[in-house]
Amino acid sequence: MTRYIFITGGVVSSLGKGLGSAALGALLQARGYKVRLCKLDPYLNVDPGTMSPFQHGEVYVTDDGAEADLDLGHYERFTGVPAKAADNTTTGRIYTSVLQKERRGDYLGATIQVIPHITNEIKEFIAEKEGTADFVLCEIGGTVGDIESLPFLEAIRQFGNEVGADRALFLHVTLLPYIPAAGELKTKPTQHSVKELMSYGIRPQILLCRADREIDEDERRKIALFCNIDYQKVIPALDVSSIYEVPLTYHAEGLDKQVMESFGIDDIPDLDLSIWKDIVERVQAPEGEVKIAVVGKYTDLTDSYKSLNEALTHGGIANSVKVKLKFLESELFETEDPAEHLKGVHGVLVPGGFGERGAEGKIKAVQYAREKKIPYFGICFGLQMAVIEAARNLCGIKDATSSEFEKKGTHIIGLMTEWEKGGKKEKRGDDTDKGGTMRLGAYPAKLVKGSKVAAIYDTTKISERHRHRYEVNINYKDQLEKEGIEFSGLSPDGKLPEIIEHKDHPWFIGVQFHPELKSKPFDPHPLFVSFIKAAVEQSRLV
Ligand code: GLN
To answer: pTM of this prediction?
Structure first.
């Protein structure tokens, strides 16, 4: 029997609902349950793939090729359960599906309405998960009170009613703001938010109250009284210094126990939190520190590089060091000396990216890292910029560039027009739709025996997640290899370069995929472990 937990948010956005859901998933798992997490997003885009990272943060990619909400990354990092395309939907996707059915005539002449057609489509998205886990956690994006969320709230209300109270639980995440003039945390916004939720027919059984300081007993009792919720189920969720403390702190406040009780589960299984205790201990007591420069263009919003930040942290956990990140806007390097910004860093990373702005600056950063023998990690766009740098400065192809941002010149990086997916040919052109048409999701690659990456992965067969439209032109392989750039990973048909590494450098690796998406605190990605290890060695030199 599958039980459903619906997670809504109130008062303000950015309360860490995704993280809270992920942490609860981890706690249920620690009690031996099978969990599945999914996210319902009320925006109109079919998926976040077409949105700027400034708008919505990182676009997370699943093995099965979905461009999904970044919360799916939290879910996967905390539970280790690989996220699937079917774990995320949006208003845009729901409407697209309903309208396609309408055009096909599936509704047999009915007038199509939000209730029941849109709400039924949402309920189907949830019901599909039946039987796939003991607990399905469904997070509703946005904040209660938003117009966009209404069909989702109505759908979960109906769903909860249909499966019955012993199989559905509503958990609401709110904020208690601290008002300095009063010297206290305020409960009123929470009361209003719960009232709003009740006006839609949803009575939350558990409240997760975010606050930046201790919530005293009086405040907790007040919330319990006014919101009609058990005192024990008003759970303080205080800020913590590392997100990996969240499962432990929520457990200490009784979250998982209250969830069990709400479902009427008497025979509560024991729980094993040793993995999380170990991670937190390592995060809290590092034996050193390394400084990594991340040279990108979405550096103002660190959510744009969410998985990357976490994967670097995981690399630090594995090496027992703290990883300090220095985010640098790549355009800086177009006018200023790279040494000014990169001197003293122990590693340089150029992450995924799109478009012309800042590209030349990234190439400058690559050149600095190559020449000064600072560990360099290029991810996707970061690999492409490393190849352009080598073509220009080592092979002497002065006008080497990418057709992504330069019509003229020698296109060492060009638009991918066809590739294999599951034995079938995928074809693309300049005029193809932008949404969902990149080379997306898990693809295998073969690594060259004896290469650095084969040693790092300890295998020659890997599978990694991709999200790109351009590729390194394989015809330049020989020319680049003559200059010491080994093509150490290729697609199984040998046509698409997947990894390059510089032979004459302590650690210089570029990958066409996104290893950060698969890294977990309890299972750090080998490339990040190795990169941070190289940075530790670099820190001993400078
Ligand atoms: N813009 C490049 C491409 O589409 C790189 C993409 C990325 O870094 N994710 O190929």
So the answer is: 0.94
